[in-house]
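Handout, section B. The chain below has 313 residues.
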Amino acid sequence: MVLATHDTDLAAELADRTFELRGGRATELAPGRASELAPGRAHGTGRSATQRGPPMSIAAVSIAGILLFIWPFLGLGLPPEVPALAVTLGAVASLGLMEAGARHLDSGRLALLAALAAIDAALRLAMVNGVGGFSPIFFLVLAAGYEFGASYGFLVGAFSLLVSALVTGGVGPWLPYETFAVGWVGASAGLAGSVVRRLRADRKSWLPGRLDLAVLVGVAIVTGFAFGALTDIWGWVAFYRGVENIGWTPGLPAVDTLAQFGRYYITTSVTWDAFRAVGDAIAVVALGTPVLMALGRLRARLGYEIVDAPQAG
């Protein structure tokens, strides 16, 4: 049987004889040679599409989100709604353009991004309120970020939230906070995935190991609570202004304001967010292996690296 594939790991695992097709000519590779071209990369020419570590683009874009969240702790209340939304949309669009300009977001990855955002929007439409704080949209954001990197994870999270907000009628002054928070969920998974891949650079199998699942479960739990805390900031300022001991109060020093928010979060939100953290962890355990394997194969097919051209003669 003859099998044609861009998946060099698959070829190394299954084939008795492996041929490389280049310039219309098929050249047989020595045994074991195919596995040297991977894991995680398809063979071809062009720039590398696999990111190495956290890019500066996502750090620059995140500055706008950080300012949005620390604004109330500076005693300034909430920023104006329209500028906040404009800054958020501009930040997400800027990251997408920077990734496209760096060839990290080509047509294949853009199509996958649109598909993931559409699936998450459909899941959120089917379960708008979730179970407690749990929503099914977080699992795909975590998995895509873990396999494709921090910037792609941020884009999957941000676009999933924006599309689902349009579908479910969830557009409001809270949207900028939710957009950055879900984007950072995907980015956190991407950073964790990059670290694990560096630790296991010699991995040859597409099957996620226990370490992959354990790390992603840990990220799911941490980000489940972190997302809740971040998105609570808007509601805390909007609805709990002046409430004794837990409400946002104008003129308080930043440390005292942070203490007020901590009491508010523990009093009102920890149990709610525990549903999200535990639900996301269960989703990773139950579905993580097949979904990460599928996304890993897609990453190989959509990625490519620079290779040396054969010498003439």
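Note. The first strand starts at residue 18 and ends at 22. Compare this with the example in section A.
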